[in-house]
Amino acid sequence: MKLSSILPRLFATAALFISILSCSENLDSSGVCPVLCPQIGGDVQNVTLDGAIQLDTTVQSLSGLGTEPNLFLANRGDTLDTRVVLRFDSLPKTFFVVGDTTHKPITTVDSAYILLRLDTLNIKAGAPVTIEAYDVDTTANDTSTAAIVALFRPDRFISSQTIAVADLKDSVKYFISNAAVLAKIQNNQRLRIGLRSTGILSSSLVIKATEIGSPPIMFFRVSPDTTVKPLQVGLLSKTPDDPILAINLRDYTVIAKAPPAAPPSVLALGGLPTRRIYVRFVVPDSIIDSATVVRATLLLNQIPNGLLDPTDTIKVLPQVVLAGPAVTDPTKAAQILGNISKDTLRLRPGDAGLVSVELSGAIPLWRTQKPDTLPRAIVLRPVSEGSSPLEIRFYSSEEALAALRPQLRLSYTRKVPLGLP
């Protein structure tokens, strides 16, 4: 089916979903006639549906290279190694002095640095961090990780700077080689810098990216005259030909090495590259259509993952899938989502045991849409998608022990029919 035929139905579903959520506000109804808001009658029934999980699987987050809200620069020994690429594809060739309309060619560069804005809540460093800069300009495939990683070699080295832990604040000036910048300007070349973290101890830094409005910016002086302000150069990528992809690749994270992925039979979310969990349900119409669901809970059994920072916390957000049945690929369906809760789960990779995921917010939408119009599915994804290596793992429906498989628990009462006496 063509995308053009899917979009109207998708937009209609999204509009309906928003309208349903708007009707779920906790309004004061004390002055409304009781007959309009009858009390829920009957006892609350609790049922755990073993066969309610139609499909559960791990899918990739297809937000795309360079779309992450933060850049992740990490040196975790043999476990994790990530680099950061910054593209300055348009360097100024001339400058002018205030009061003088004549543009002068840039013949000198001094005090060149890149202003990096850090997420101070996610700094991990027990010793000074050394950041090395390399020239990663190449005509190779823009999205080839192997091609970029291969350029972090001695003949491409630009400069190095060691930063004390106390100096890792919200803004850091990373100084680079003046000669390297000047050479690029005079040779009419683009400047693409790859950053790599080294040091005595492991470290990781989260650098704010273009996507949240705090991109790295380069500054340098072109004259000893103090009346000439330092030039400011923003990120720009002129390749590839796809304009959207070019915008995304202004700054991005390169994963040189990551911990081993979870086995295919295990549900995993987070990690690098980032993964999500997709779950599709089969819920009896007698419950969805003819009862008032008080609570809906997805029960998952967590598997301890001690590969990386097992005691750190990751925020997990459950969302409802808005993709219709025409989107048969779970990975693609997992990108079309709507919120069902403002609350997030706080999980630690090293923990084990039962995890409860509340799904009550999805029930009103499922009640108004039949499964053949909107499959009953949800996605679990990390809030820090693309900027954290933490990975949470759960047993899937392929687990041999039935007690460890995902289950759906519903609490509901039978509807009270409206009517006047």
In terms of topology, how is this protein built?
Elements: H1 3-22, E1 45-49, E2 53-60, E3 70-76, E4 80-88, E5 94-95, E6 104-105, E7 110-117, E8 124-125, E9 129-135, H2 145-149, E10 157-163, E11 171-175, H3 178-186, E12 191-198, E13 203-208, E14 217-221, E15 231-233, H4 243-248, E16 251-257, E17 266-270, E18 275-281, H5 285-288, E19 291-303, E20 314-321, H6 330-333, E21 337-339, E22 345-347, E23 353-358, H7 363-368, E24 377-382, E25 391-395, E26 407-414
Note down, in words, how this protein is organized.
There is one protein chain. The chain is mainly beta. The protein folds into two domains: 3-63 and 264-414, no CATH class; 80-257, no CATH class. Helices cover 13% and strands 37% of the residues. Strands 3, 4, 8, 9, 10, 12, 13 and 16 form an eight-stranded antiparallel beta sheet that branches. Strands 1, 17, 19, 23, 25 and 26 form a six-stranded antiparallel beta sheet that branches. β3 and β4 form a beta hairpin. It starts with a helix and ends in a 7-residue tail after the last strand.
